[in-house]
Amino acid sequence: MFFNSHQCKNIGPDELNRKMKSGEDFLLLDVRTPQENAAMAIEGSHLIPVQELGYRIDELPKKKEIVVYCRVGNRSAFACAHLAEWDIM
Question: Which residue has the higher pLDDT, 88 or 62?
């Protein structure tokens, strides 16, 4: 999920790779469990498990694009909806 200016939009791995290779300035947020992250994580990502997001929200930048990922997409969609609700941008 891609979160920017109160919007959520799905992006795929190709779009994420393009953003990373082009040097775009964004936070890559992993909302999976620590165990999932330890098994495999995208280099440079920041781990905040979705169940901890509410009380760790101040770790996120206020004026930066955020790409949220998980294993299947359900947790990232949930996290993105809450980021929009909490008006993080």
Answer: 62
